[in-house]
Amino acid sequence: MSVLVVGLSHKTAPIELLERVSLDTESVVKLSHRALETPYVSEAAVVSTCNRVEVYVEAERFHGAVEEVSTLLAEHAGLDRDAFVRHAYVHYDDAAVAHLFEVAAGLDSMIIGESQILGQVRDALQLGQDESTVGSALNTLFQQALRIGKRGHAETGIDLLGPSIVTASLDAAGHVVHDPETRFLVIGAGTMSSLAVKTLVESGVSNARIMVANRTYQRAYELVETYGVGAVRWGSLDNELHHADVVITCTGASGLVLDRERIERAQHDGRPMTLIDMALPRDVDATVADMAGVTLVDIALLAERGSDTAAAQDVTAVRSIVDAEVEAFLAAKAAARVTPTVVALRTMATEIVSAEMERFARRNDVSDEVLAEVRHTVNRVADKILHAPTVRVQQLVDGDGGLTYADALADLFALDPAAIAAVTKRSGDKADKAGEGA
Question: Would residue 250 show up in a list of annotated catalytic residues for this protein?
Answer without folding.
Answer: no
